[in-house]
Amino acid sequence: MNTNPEEQALLADAAQLRRERMQIGDPEATEAIRRGFAHSPASRKRRFLPYAVAAVVMAVLLGAGWWQGGPIGIPAPHTAKDMSWGALERYRALSTKDVDHVTLESAVRNNYIQIVNKSVSSGPYRITLDAVTADENKIMLLYTATAESGQEIYKVNSAKVTDSNSGKLLNSKFQIGNGDGRSWSGQSTVMLDRSQPFPSRIEVDFQVASVNPGKLGDPKTGTVAADFRYSDRMKIDVDLEPKFEKTPTFVMQPDRSISIDGHKIVLSKVEMSPLLTRATFAIDNGSELDFKTKQSIWDKLRYMTIVSTNRNGRAVQLNPVAGNGTDEGFEQIFSSSMLDKPRSLVLKMYIDSDTGAPKPLKDLPVVELKIK
């Protein structure tokens, strides 16, 4: 076991988020999602800033049960409670605490999952990569850490993913997890650039953080760096199944528009793959607008969601999980239901033109744009 100053800083950040989750409420959570793309500089393309914001959002979801009722005024999406997750049953409860849980549920339901079940040990620690799912835009990893009785698992504090073919470190962005001290189950997301070669073989490099017996229940855990012990790095190699590379992204061009403050905003493109939905918005003369003007427009877009209805009439809500500003406008990343073969897709945009205190979403006007 060893101590790691870099990881000590990360754990201190986690402790701060844990303190913040006791103070942040539902309205702030919705605002956090909105601010994720509102504050992104227009010159930065494909920088998924809401993943930084998502840490705060997830603190709310995990700590306050915010997602169980959906964001203010929006019904929680349908969940197939009777669906069997088989060997991945432990991840069902974890998934429901993720803003992107619709995507993983769809992947499990449609058998778009690769069971890996590979393990490696180091000292008292053992990490198992249970499963992966992927497409040309994204990889999702499911893994479990355990330790012998001499240690209590705090979390898997690092899961780095490398493209084994190129040696390039991939863009690991988001992690959630939970545990009981004896084990810890996690889910990590890796964003891909589909203009680059697909990483058909990956190496996942894990590190586990733990504390001595009895320390996990100490209120100070997460703030005292000396309490933590870290495993050596543990690596697992995986050849991804060919179906992940062969499943293409479906591109639609809805050309739907709304007007905000006299500016025409066009939903110019929607890309949908098994694990991701990306909506691209262009503002008329967007490249000529200064950041302050763009921010004023974005500030009025309080929340967006996509309602997806499949051929059996089952409707789910595709949640916003990331976003960024572009020179021409902005992009928003949502969950995906592509594997369920949606019959219709409708974007719902909640508009707040009032500069006063934010209103509950249920009290805001909604603009619906048909995608499909």
UniProtKB/TrEMBL annotation:
Instruction: List where the protein spans the membrane.
Output: 48-67
Q: Which UniProt keywords apply?
A: Membrane, Transmembrane, Transmembrane helix
Q: Is the keyword Transmembrane helix in the record? A: yes
Q: Which domain of life is it from?
A: Bacteria
Stated name of the protein: DUF4179 domain-containing protein
Q: Which organism is it from?
A: Paenibacillus favisporus
